[in-house]
Amino acid sequence: MTETTAPGAVSFCLRLLRRQLTLAIRRPVAVGNPLLFFAMVVALFPLGIGPAPETLAGFAPGILWIVALLSNLLSADGIFRSDFDDGSLEQLLLAPQPLYLSVLAYVAAHWLVTGVLLALVSPLFAAMLDLPVVAWPSLAAGLFLGSGVMSLVGGIGAALTVGLRRGGMLISLLILPFYMPVLIFGTATVQAALDGAPVQPFLALLGSMLCLSIALAPLAISAGLRISVDA
User: Fold this and answer.
1) 200/217 Cα distance (integer angstroms)
2) 145/155 Cα distance (integer angstroms)
3) Under 8 Å CB-to-CB from 8, ≥6 apart: which residues?
4) Could you list the residue ranges that cross the membrane (predicted)?
């Protein structure tokens, strides 16, 4: 008989990432909800503040980043929910592979199907708010980095509340304050592009926050999952 050996840590995490992406593709509603929410809110803002292009362009950086933040909150609760419900999450905690890398795969899948998609389509929504074209690359780059931070921080809240039936409101209260630096520097990136100032310092800050989150957030997520599953 041939002995079966457990896959290596990297191989296991890549398989886990592929699994999560496949499940997301099979549930298009889960992928489309954040984009639909983003589009609906952006379309409603001109009705509330007026259709004047100058007014919309002035508020556009803050509007786009706030809606991106809320879209991330909308989907963060589901990062581990389905696997917790079917028992897969408990098996993941017992696996020999490092939990740090495993939860990083979960968060990476969430970031790819939410944050990266929002960053790619953000120029379309920017055009809806009459944001000048010169600020579109900064908006997309900022969302690309900032959404990664929000997914990692959102993963902490999702891990702590995964055992609760209605953890959506609680997760918002837990992680919303930690989203504020991302919101501030993300908006400042777009505003700097509009003012003709260098955007690299703000993107560097967002990149530093992403690196710090990658280093620390999976540790907190792992601890939160163990608490939630053992509770």
Assistant:
1) 25
2) 16
3) 97
4) 28-49, 55-74, 99-127, 139-162, 169-190, 202-225
| Token output for 156 | 């902490």
* 63 vs 57: CA distance, rounded Å: 10
Q: What is the total residue count of the chain?
A: 231
Locus of tokens 């009459």: 130
pLDDT tens across 7-21, in order?
677 888 888 889 888
Q: What is the residue-wise DSSP string for 158-195?
A: HHHHTTSTT-HHHHHHHHHHHHHHHHHHHHHHHHHHHH
Condensed to tens digits (0 to 9), the pLDDT of residues 139-173 reads: 999 999 999 999 999 999 888 888 776 656 777 78
Q: How far is CA 225 from CA 5, 75, 81, 84, in A?
A: 26, 18, 11, 10
